[in-house]
Design brief:
Shape: globular
CATH architecture of one domain: Sandwich
CATH class of one domain: Mainly Beta
Number of helices: 2
Length: 436
């Protein structure tokens, strides 16, 4: 009997265990609500740093016969605007960094320009540029080589670490590239003739393998023994579907029109160009080949124009604009949109050009300051309208509730140049962090 009971228990015990696992309710852990903990972290932006490119560069000496000689000539004048107390030398030979601390960063915190008039055997005219923030990559479209043309790239590494600068030269014949070592605190002057060979037009892409570097492209143009101008570009661009370029002033009517250069790094592009002037818009069309260039003469009546470039594929754009009196030329590039812009004013005869890129009228306030004494002016700009205001103050500030375009046009006995400003800002803001 005992044996039978034990056998029965051995058969039933596993079944009872299984049934208990299946049918008995599982134990429930007491529920707890976990509240989120939130706190705010303030991430201050890094010091705002901009770099002025430095004085003009000459290759081969004044007459061009001294092989392997590349050096700066003269001095560039520097003017700066800042909401803080800063010390900026009035002139410089090499590139010069300017730094300031501030949590609210914009051109009102720091903005600077440089200018230099040249009168050399192979180069004359006025070179003026905005002092830009260092970049990690970007494009120049204004490269030129061959008889009478010369392009020189300058690069300065004002970081504490070494870097390499990758330079890609894109011409109708294809792409070539070169790497240049840049030690911390080093500046290099690079003639692009060996890379460009005799390419009449080319674009340059630059990229730093470490933190950003300051880059600039200088161009010289001459015909025979007659220098036709110098130009300095510090503003790089990125390919885009739309560009706004201004002021395109017709300054050599009957001699040579402004020429729009387009480059498509990718596929072929169909481009529509609209030039807005006092007599209404003028329309142009062109096609840019795949990984190629197109140059279009903008045959326009005398006046100043706001140029809009629309493309179905991202392209680069720039206008080379010659002047007869004085004999010089300037490259004018796509510009940023602003709602507030502060600038120092050059010592040369200068016009501030403001433009409305929108389909509705806008109102702007212009504050000019001389010897700490401000003067105020209000302007109304209709759709796609631009206006030029002569300025001779120390600084200027433009503000609007709507976006606008702005540039400084220098037209003086010393030469002709256009300065297109950029916003100056590092990333940094208040962050809300939730911890659960």
């Amino acid at each position: 009997m005992k044996i039978f009971a034990r056998a029965l228990l051995a058969l039933l015990l596993p079944a009872l265990v299984v049934s208990g696992y299946v049918f008995l309710p599982a134990a429930q852990a007491p529920s707890q609500e976990v509240a989120a903990s939130e706190f705010q972290v303030s991430v201050d932006p890094a010091e705002l740093e901009i770099v002025c490119a430095g004085a003009l560069i000459e290759v081969g000496g004044e007459d061009g016969t001294e092989l392997d000689l590349i050096e700066r000539v003269g001095e560039a004048g520097v003017k700066a605007f800042s909401a803080e107390e800063i010390s900026v030398p009035p002139t410089t030979v090499g590139s010069i960094p300017i730094e300031v601390k501030g949590s609210e960063q914009s051109t009102e915190l720091l903005s600077a320009i440089q200018t230099q008039a040249a009168s050399r055997q192979r180069a004359s005219g006025l070179a003026a540029s905005y002092c830009e923030q260092p970049i990690t990559s970007g494009w120049f479209i204004s490269g030129a080589s061959g008889v009478g043309n010369e392009s020189i790239l300058s690069a300065a590494n004002w970081n504490d670490v070494d870097t390499q600068l990758i330079v890609e030269l894109h011409s109708p014949g294809g792409m070539v590239s070169e790497r240049y070592a840049l030690a911390a605190g080093q500046e290099r002057l690079i003639t692009l003739a060996p890379l460009a060979a005799l390419a009449g037009v080319y674009a340059i892409r630059v990229e730093s393998t470490s933190p950003g570097v300051a880059v600039a492209l200088q161009n010289r143009w001459s015909r025979g023994l007659t220098p036709l101008g110098v130009e300095l570009t510090t503003t790089t661009q990125l390919p885009a579907l739309q560009h706004w370029i201004q002021p395109v002033s017709v300054l050599a009517e009957g001699y040579q029109p402004p020429v729009l250069r387009l480059f498509s790094p990718g596929e072929a592009a169909e481009v529509v160009i609209t030039a807005f002037g006092e007599e209404g818009p003028e329309l142009f069309r062109t096609v840019v080949p795949k990984a190629g260039f197109a140059e279009l003469a903008l045959e326009l009546a005398a006046g100043t124009y706001l140029v809009k470039v629309d493309s179905d594929v991202e392209v680069l754009a720039g206008v080379r604009n010659p002047a007869l009196d004085p004999l010089d030329y300037a490259w004018i590039f796509p510009q940023q949109l602003f709602t507030s812009l502060a600038l120092p004013v050059p010592s040369y005869k200068t016009t501030l050009w403001l433009a409305n890129p929108g389909a509705l009228a806008i109102s702007l306030t212009l504050t000019t300051t001389t010897n700490d004494r401000p003067s105020y002016q209000t302007l109304e700009l209709g759709p796609f309208e631009s206006a030029g205001i002569p300025v001779s103050s120390d600084t200027l500030l433009v503000q609007s509730a709507n976006e606008f375009l702005a540039a400084l046009e220098l037209l003086d006995g010393a030469g002709y140049a256009v300065i297109g400003p950029s916003e100056n800002k590092n990333l940094g803001e208040d962050l809300v962090v939730s911890v659960r």
